[in-house]
Specification:
alpha+beta; two-stranded antiparallel sheet; 2 strands; 51% helix
Amino acid sequence: MDKLTMTETIVSTKLAKGLSWESMAGDLGMSPVWLTSACLGMNSAPPEKAAAIAEYLGLGPEVAKALEAFPTKTWDKAVPNDPLIYRLYEIVGVYGDTLKEVIQEKFGDGIMSAIDFSMEVDKIEDPKGDRVLLTLNGKFLPYKSW
């Protein structure tokens, strides 16, 4: 089973069972962001987590094996059409250089890892309209000179 078929199988099963990523993650003791990313095919799962996800959803070992497979992280479009994802691109477009300057001023010449990384999505209730809080937590990797 390839990653695309795996994702379609997981998402259709999730919907049929009336589950949410948050409830699945809570029941499985996993991060909802990581679980969602793995189930959407953008991360590989260690064998024990892959087996737990497949068992939880009542899916077979072929789904677990696909969850374990290393992903090829590609995007179909230069700029996505989905409004939420587009807005994230817009944020990076508007604030990307600012973030680079501020991070490098604080840490030096380098990058924030997307490999040694975690992310959380939180809801902050506000009478003027609820707020989305994204926390991106990546290890700083300095550039080396030789």
